[in-house]
Design brief:
By secondary structure, the protein is α/β, with parallel strands linked by helices. The protein has 10 helices and 7 strands.
Length: 203
């Protein structure tokens, strides 16, 4: 999947298209792969594109693995220039102590937190405070699972930097994704009043 993403981004650049970052999930099995860093390094050299065009999301299953190994791999990937995100914060193995280690640039808030916030004032307060707190610590906070304008406005007020969800689009095949990026403002007219700091995650 990672090499396919490199290949796609390289093709878009070569053809002169607008290119936005795309996120790739790394599971526990990916992290423990013995030659992971060597293979990723080879892809960086082979495709010769800005590494910032590919973000790496570490899934919550890595939370129960050897933390020393995770730290070494994360440090190597960051030295290569990759932006690392903790996926699905608030569920499974992801936890506050892991987030406090600051090995990630982004924290993606799990969709379940947003759904709970829709129906419960305490859950809404919790999510709002988490977004604000992590933002104050220097994280880029991503809220996943945004499905309507009310949810979007809530997470924007809370301070989310990146927003992802069906409110903007369902998953798209490559050609339709490219067309969507070309016509983004037409697809999402409600975003015209959002501060420039708010972006859309390319996951």
């Amino acid at each position: 999947v990672l090499e396919e993403t490199f290949r796609y981004q390289k093709q878009q650049m070569d053809e002169g298209h607008r290119v936005v970052p795309i996120s790739v999930n790394f599971s526990k099995m990916t992290i423990i792969y013995p030659e992971l860093v060597e293979k990723v390094t080879a892809m960086v050299k082979k495709y010769d594109i800005p590494v910032g065009l590919i973000h790496i999301e570490v899934t919550e299953t890595v939370g129960d693995m050897d933390h020393a190994l995770l730290e070494r791999v994360a440090d190597c990937l960051k030295r290569l220039g990759f932006r690392l995100s903790m996926d699905d914060f608030g569920t499974g193995y992801s936890n506050l102590s892991d987030a406090m280690k600051k090995r990630y640039k982004n924290l993606k808030m799990d969709i379940s937190l947003l759904r709970d916030a829709d129906n419960d004032v305490n859950s809404r307060l919790l999510l709002s405070n988490l977004i604000w707190s992590f933002g104050s610590m220097g994280y880029q906070v991503v809220q996943e699972g945004v499905e309507d304008k009310k949810q979007m406005e809530f997470v924007v007020r809370a301070g989310a930097n990146l927003i992802q969800g069906y409110y903007f689009s369902t998953p798209l095949p490559p050609q339709e994704f490219l067309e969507y990026i070309r016509n983004f403002e037409e697809h999402c007219p409600d975003l015209s009043g959002i501060p420039e700091a708010i972006s859309i995650s390319g996951a």
